[in-house]
Amino acid sequence: MSNAWSFGICYGGGVKDRIQTIVDSIEQEKIPEYEILIVGPDIQIPNTIHYTFNDGGSMPWITRKKNYIGTLAKYPNLCLIHDYFALNQGWFEGFEKFGYNWDVAMTPIYRVDGSRYLDWLKLLHHEFLDYDNHDHTKEMYISGGYIIIKTQFLRKHRFNEALYWGQAEDVEWSTRINHEWTYRCNTLSSARLLKDGK
Predict the structure, then answer these.
(1) Which domains, ranges and CATH numbers included, belong to the chain?
(2) What local confidence, expressed as pLDDT, does residue 57 receive?
(3) Do the beta carbons of residue 85 and residue 191 sit within 8 Å?
(4) Closest CA to 86 of 197, 198, 195
(5) Which pTM value belongs to this model?
(6) Residue 43 burial (CB count, 10 A)
(7) R_g over Cα of the chain
(8) Which residues of the chain are modeled with pLDDT < 70?
(9) Could you tell me which of 73, 75, 64, 69 has the C-alpha nearest to residue 33?
């Protein structure tokens, strides 16, 4: 299976230093074939492709941004991230060892203080599971801020554009498609939050 990656950053504006940190975290992985797409207000970051996106209102239209990235991505593996997540060192090597037999994947995510963020958990009450527990993969929640997904799977299972950021768009999507995916947890790779809170 191809190990080429598209990275789609959903950018809300005003945090250029943070975007550079995200881009640096991707570039340090030395992935042989990849692209970095930034969708949002105008921003100039070397080695990225920027697409201007106007949310058109007071609420970030995060669902349309994600679907748009899905149409733009040219590689089979897609990492969709909000503008406050970054990869930890060894992320790509971890996927090389873990493999690419999944529709949607998760890795551990760490908060700024090192504690566990919304990574491998059941939808109901956001119940954290042990990373080796795959008994509930049809009941799982995918945090909208960090999604590892096959590009073709996203094109088939789009986000509901009637919902905006903060309207549980990730809960709706997880509930709607969790019987359609092969969902696996890769503990060999990880990501981190770049700010406190959501």
Answers:
(1) 5-120+144-169+182-193 (3.90.550.10)
(2) 64
(3) yes
(4) 195
(5) 0.94
(6) 18
(7) 15
(8) 1, 56-58, 197-198
(9) 75
**Alpha carbon of residue 1 to chain centroid:** 20
Question: Distance (Å, rounded) from C-alpha 133 to C-alpha 127?
Answer: 12
H or E element at residue 156: helix 151-156
User: What pLDDT was estimated at residue 1?
Assistant: 54
Count Cα atoms within 13 angstroms, Cβ side, for 3: 13
How far, CA to CA in Å, does 93 sit from each of 1, 17, 90?
15, 26, 5
Q: Which amino acid is at 3?
A: N
pLDDT one-digit tens code per residue, 45-75: 999 999 998 776 667 889 999 999 999 999 9
Q: Which of 136, 145, 118 is nearest to 183 (CA)?
A: 136
Which H or E run contains 87? strand 85-87
How far apart (Å, rounded) are the C-alpha atoms in residues 64 and 60? 9
Q: Which amino acid is at 56?
A: G
Cα 191 to Cα 146: distance, rounded to the nearest angstrom: 9
